[in-house]
Specification:
about 55 residues, mainly alpha, 2 helices
Length: about 55
């Protein structure tokens, strides 16, 4: 109940760090998905060539 007596700005900034980390994690995930979508066929071809050479 003590959190009720804090000013609103103080309550809002307490979770700001967690929200920033979550947004950063989402951004990194989106970038990785985009890279894998773009580079996926090329990476697949490299592995197929390696398997064929064995």
């Amino acid at each position: 109940m003590q959190w009720l007596f804090y000013p609103p700005s103080s309550r809002w900034t307490r979770g700001q760090g967690l929200v920033e980390y979550a947004l950063l994690l989402i951004f990194v995930a989106v970038v990785l998905i985009a890279l894998l979508t773009i580079l996926g066929p090329g990476i697949s071809n490299v592995y197929e060539n390696i398997i064929r050479s064995l």
